[in-house]
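The record is passed on directly below:
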Amino acid sequence: MRNMPARDQERPRAAAQPPAAQPDPAADYPGRSARQIGPERLVRLLANVAGAAAAVFFARASLQFYLRTHQLIGGAFFVEQTWFVIAFLIRRPPKAVSRGLAGWALAYGGTFGGTLLRPVGAHPPWGVNAGLGLQLLGLAICGLSFAALGRSLGLAPANRGLVTRGPYAVVRHPLYAAYVLIQLGYLLQSMALWNVLVMVLACGCNIGRVLTEERLLGTSADYAAYRQRVRWRLLPGVW
């Protein structure tokens, strides 16, 4: 801190100094005025609440299933969705986010489309066992991905900082791959045309959000280098 000027010099110096600079609320959003930030924060808040509410609904259903059947998979889903709710509410603001309606629709379809799956159709023993294995694997990848992402968890295509640790060192979108595994596991356990259609819809949405997100991040030099290091998007050796 500078020494205080002498009392007889205080007024002339104070008059000559420009007013102290005030923090600019739009500093993190180049090219946008402060008036534009308010609505964007409101939209982000509403999106956070909507996403968290959907996860709470699924977590509640998972808890009810666990209390009714005492099957470990129900408890695991409850823990995973509760973690999702907390991470979703405390996530950091994005540096850039997709403004297109299609990007948001793909994100919600890929994340929550699996809630449309129903325990109907055929339940062959091999499918029940294989499906359980896929679901447990998907939940494990979800947990590792959440831990790696921290406050960078997102829904719509956005840039919240590049994450390259954990499962992100193996594939570029491990969380979406986990969703596919979990949904495929459910389909094997409950083979019905309705579930096949839901699976096609959810997988299509996740593939679409991968492509949308990579278009958004494609201008980043860091992401270009990361894409060179980690070749596969969802499944090593396939895509």
Residues 33-93+100-229 form a domain with the Four Helix Bundle (Hemerythrin (Met), subunit A) fold (CATH 1.20.120). The first strand starts at residue 96 and ends at 97.
